[in-house]
Amino acid sequence: MNLQKQILTMAMKAKLSTLWMFYLFNTIFRDIHEFVEPGFIEQVMTGTFNGIQITENLLLFGGFVASVPISMVLLSRLLPYGANRWANIIAAAITFAFEINNGTTDLDDTLHMIMEMAALLFIIWSAWWWRNPFSKQHGIGQEVSS
After folding, report:
1. Residue 35's pLDDT is what?
2. What is the pTM of this model?
């Protein structure tokens, strides 16, 4: 294998993994900020939040949604080119849809949401334009060497 091609592949995998970590840090910090909002903890302790009943199924769904970007930190490093590329595009698009659905409640939410969405868009853009350095593309008139 060509060392330069291996380095290019490792660099893209590291870039995607780092973008997922950037997304997660913003998400975590955004969630931590919610705890200091007046009335947040009291509302959660009643078993409802913003009029929505907190159930086991809702928490399971939230855990699934959170596990997608967490998993992508690792999968971006481990998956081979084709699966990696599509997993990043699909996972970022799904996560982006959940971000839009959640919306914002205040200025710090808006700041973190902008940062999160920028990271997700950059993941999609990077994965979309990522080309396999190991593919053998031969144009018209080129000889194929064996």
Report:
1. 84
2. 0.83
On whether residue 136 sits in a domain, the answer given is no
Whether the Cβ atoms of residue 127 and residue 85 lie closer than 8 Å to each other: yes
Query: What is the model's pLDDT at position 141?
Result: 44
CA distances to 20, 77, 84, 94 from 14, in Å = 10, 6, 12, 21
Percent of the chain at pLDDT exceeding 70: 92
**Structural domain harbouring 71:** 3-129
pLDDT-derived band of residue 7, with 50, 70 and 90 as boundaries?
A: confident
Q: Do the Cβ atoms of 92 and 127 come closer than 8 Å?
A: yes
Domain count, the chain: 1
